């Protein structure tokens, strides 16, 4: 469980679970907004997919970014 606060959060940190999950032998990641991405062949590839996703989101203009 991640207990760190994010920028702009006040009060106790909310419960957070892992962004990664496995169904059968395939791995997926999920975003705060509930978007699931996958399947990936391994957790490592799912982690790479999440890093790529976050990189693309950071390139979007502020008004188009997923919050």
Automatic annotation (TrEMBL):
Superkingdom of origin: Bacteria
Name of the molecule in the record: Thiolase
Domain DUF6316: start-end pairs: 5-58
């Amino acid at each position: 469980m991640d207990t760190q606060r994010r920028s702009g959060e006040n009060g106790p940190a909310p419960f957070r679970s892992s962004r990664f999950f496995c169904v059968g032998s395939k791995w997926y990641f999920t975003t705060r907004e509930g978007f699931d991405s996958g399947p990936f062949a391994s957790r490592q590839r799912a982690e790479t997919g999440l890093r790529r996703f976050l990189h693309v989101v950071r390139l979007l203009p502020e008004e188009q970014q997923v919050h």
